Each structure stands twice: as C-alpha cells, then as structure tokens.
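In practice, a research group might receive sequence data for several interacting partners and want a quick structural hypothesis before committing to experiments. The following worked case mirrors that situation: the sequences arrive first, and a predicted assembly follows.
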Amino acid sequence: MKQIVPLHINGDIHEVAIEPGATLLRVLREHLGLIGTKRGCDSGGCGCCTVHLDGKAVYSCMTFALQVAGRKITTIEGLSPDGRLNRLQDAFVEAGAVQCGYCTCGMIMAAQQLLDVTQTPTEEEIRRAIAGNLCRCTGYHKIVAAIKLASAP
Amino acid sequence: MALPKLREFITPADAQGVLNALRNYQDRALIVAGGTFLHGLESRGLLTHVEALIDIQRLGLDYLESGKDGLKLGATALFADLETMPEIRNDPWLGAIKDALVFPPVQVKNAATIGGSVAASCPFFDVPISFMCLDGVVKCRGSSGMRDIPMQEFFTGLFANAMENGEFMVELAIPRPRTRSASAFMKVETNANDLAILNAAVRIDVDESGTCSDARVIAGGGVGETPIRLSDAEQVLVRQRLTPEICARAGLSAKGSVNPISDHRASAAYRSEMTRVMVNRALRQALDRLRQ
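A structural hypothesis for the assembly, expressed as tokens:
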C-alpha cells in the first residue's frame, strides 16, 4: 500500500506516493526526475548514489524513502541551486577529476560532507572520506587533487 | 530492493507499537533501522517471506550513555555518533570499538546502527565482535518484558540469534572493567566496502602487579557460522605477565582452535594463518595501550 509523504529535497517539499519498499534513490530518479544521483551497484558498494540526509552523506540505494519523510535531503542538484557550480564542483573541473563521470556526483557529495566539517583536510582524511565511493577511471589521484584544491585557503 | 511480499512499512512511535506489529506479522516482519544490511540479506534470498518492515528509529533509542557501571548504547544510535564519544576515542579499555569503527565508509557510519549491526547476526561484521570482547550484553524487549542476553551467547548460527519471535533489541550494555584493561581490534579485508576475510577482537585485564587477570579473544569473519570465543588462547594469557612472546603464543593457540571456511574471499588455510597474525597483532596493540 502506497503512502503519501512529504520529502524535503533541496529546499523544496514534494508530496510523493511511495510504495513500502521504495528506496530514496528510486524516488529521486523515477518519481522526481532528479537523475544527478546515479544508480550503480544498488547495494551500498559503489557510492554513486550518495546524497546528504540532514547534512550527512548516506547511500540513497540503502535508504527507504518512507524513513526520511520530513528530513532534509540534499542531492547533487542542491549544491548548485542557481545553476552555478559550487567551489568543489569547480575544483573537479579544474583538476580534471572527471573521466566517464558516472561516479562524480556521488564522489562530490561524499567530499562535500568532509569539507562541511573540515576546512583543510589532510590527504588521509580525504581518502577516508571517499573510501565508500568507487571510481574505475581516474585512479583517484585527480579526485584527491580536486578536493585538496577546493579546500585550499 | 526486491521484497516480493512486502505489504507494509510500519513506523511505530513507541515500543508497544513495535510489539503489536511483531505480534500481527510474527516471523513475516523484519525490524529495520539504518537498513544498511538489508540488501545483504535480500541478495541471499533471506527476505522473500517478509511482509512488513518495522522501523524502530522513532522510539528514542538513539542514546549513548556513560555511567559508573559502564556504557549504555541505544539500539538505533549511529556508528558516526558512537565514534565521537570521548571515551571511545580516548580510553584504552574501549580501544576495540574505536579500531572497528575505522573501517566502515562514511555513508555506512551515518546510517548503520548499533542494534542493527548486532541483530543482523552476520559472522563477518566488525563492530559486534568488539562488543563481544568487552562482555557486552544485549537487552531485548518482548511482550513479557525485558531480557538480557550476553553477546557471547547471542549468535546461534548464520544470521541467527538467541532473540525469540516477538522480541527486538533495544540496547547494548557494556560493563566497566574493575581493573586496568585494554582492548583492540584487527581486520583483513579486500577493500573498504567488503566484508572481513578475518577479524579479531581482544581484551586484556591486568591486576596491580601487572599480571593478566582475565582475557577475551574473539575471532570472526569466516572462522565459522558465528564469531567464536577462543578460550584456549585466553588461557595462554591469564596469570602471565604479558610480553610479545606470550602474545605470539596466544596467536598460535588461536590458529589451532579455528576451523575456517573457504570462499571467494579467502581459503581456509589463509584464514587460519590470519587468525594467528590478527590475534597476535591485536594483543600487541592492546598491550601497547595498557602501557600508555
């Protein structure tokens, strides 16, 4: 049986009719068209579905949509509400940290949480922050460089 | 997530609501909190019968308390919050928990709960064996009241535990040691998001003369269908003044006490050898913490 619940996403409230087992990932992509959040492994192994729940990075493929009614959800679209890339997104472009791009949105959401709480993280802190995100193209070097660039004073 | 028979997602506001839902659905209900291992159960075909998910995150069980008797950790408290407790970060006797919390990715720490990690009863998990080596006690609630189950008696098989139908976990209690104590956890894994090939959690207590008065040696991650307490290895340590040589002997004893599985992650022979290595290293780590 579907339930109609309010989801607070990127500053907007969406009333959505949700099936009991629907994940947040599915609702974002299939109900609301927020396709910046990617579907990868669908089992909490790759990180490309990462979003923020009350400011903390979580895997949206492992989060039931009905569990997050009323909580603050931020997707990659929410980092650039006026269409302008934020500092971290700019740094990914500048450092060339994107190849196929499939992991990029999740990678940025994981890194953004780090930068929200740690202004100038060490390389180890950066690597730990993205340990739950897989990239099969870059070898991570330029991703780490981009996060360092975004955190430079 | 494919739960073919799922009909209802229930979010009770209190414990009675959970008990009512458990009574209505019997073994066709599953308690959820962070939900981070649901896929792990589903992919093994263990959730095809589930008709109701019962979310216990609105019960106010997300507390983390420290008192003179020890720690009281609410079932829905997050790994991320546990990690920031000052005692977990600083106290040698809780070192095993601190070590085990290094491994999960941030996205898991922000969702995974203490109760979920224990009640899932997965023999490959890290955090539960850190609770086991500290003599943690599961507090569960059923229709006839509260019941305590020591962690060392909690796991009864692969994804199986000593809770009965109609009961759910509400708290993990960890008793404060009466003597000087230190613990540590070690793990072999393939990557940050994989289950353990082998893990070990140890605790050593010493009396005023520096002699080991009690010890716990726990191994998990493929040593069997549940994590295992290795009493023979503990006996190598007890009544001894602990040295690196004694730690090495305990590691050797641990290796001789396990009969691990072979799977796609590692062979039984490799797991046996890693039992020796991880127990030895964890004991050395705990010993270093005792000397701090």
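Before designing any experiment, note the following. Chain A touches chain B at residues 1, 3, 20-21, 23, 42-47, 50, 53, 56-59, 61-64, 66-67, 110, 113-114, 128-129, 131-134 (CB under 8 Å). The CA atoms of residues 89 and 108 of chain A lie 7 Å apart.
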